[in-house]
């Protein structure tokens, strides 16, 4: 029997032996492709209320991708999320950049939505749409 196929497939899965809690739930969500009760518990266990808000935003379709930015529609405004950074006040003032578990709920919502395929894509520039708002 030729085991090269099995060997090749087995060795294409990246192993992250010392993954932090964020990397762990992100990898599990990537693999599952959907929010399971276990993943919801894991995300909210790591991120608390921010995780809850992020999951709600994804479920309500409030993560939107434009040609120039990804936007999360918040309770009072729309926030630009880029490279795991956000324009919200929570991200600016309250979070420790060196702690991967400290992310605003907008960044978490984008991370979740991308992994479960719930990003609302718009073939236009947000900078132009924003001028109309």
UniProtKB/TrEMBL annotation:
Keywords: Metal-binding, Zinc, Zinc-finger. The keyword Metal-binding applies. InterPro entries: Znf_SWIM. Residues 69-115 form the SWIM-type domain. GO terms for molecular function: zinc ion binding. This is Predicted nucleic acid-binding protein, contains Zn-finger domain.
């Amino acid at each position: 029997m030729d085991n090269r196929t099995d060997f090749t497939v087995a060795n294409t899965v990246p192993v992250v032996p010392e993954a932090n809690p964020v990397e762990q739930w992100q990898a599990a969500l990537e693999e599952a492709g959907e929010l399971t009760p276990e993943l919801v518990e894991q995300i909210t266990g790591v991120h608390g209320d921010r995780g809850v808000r992020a999951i709600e935003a994804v479920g309500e379709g409030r993560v939107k991708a434009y040609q120039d930015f990804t936007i999360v529609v918040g309770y009072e405004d729309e926030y630009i999320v880029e490279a795991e950074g956000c324009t919200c006040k929570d991200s600016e003032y309250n979070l420790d950049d060196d702690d991967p578990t400290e992310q605003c709920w907008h960044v978490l919502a984008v991370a979740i939505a991308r992994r479960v395929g719930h990003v609302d894509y718009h073939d236009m520039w947000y900078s132009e749409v924003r001028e109309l708002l």
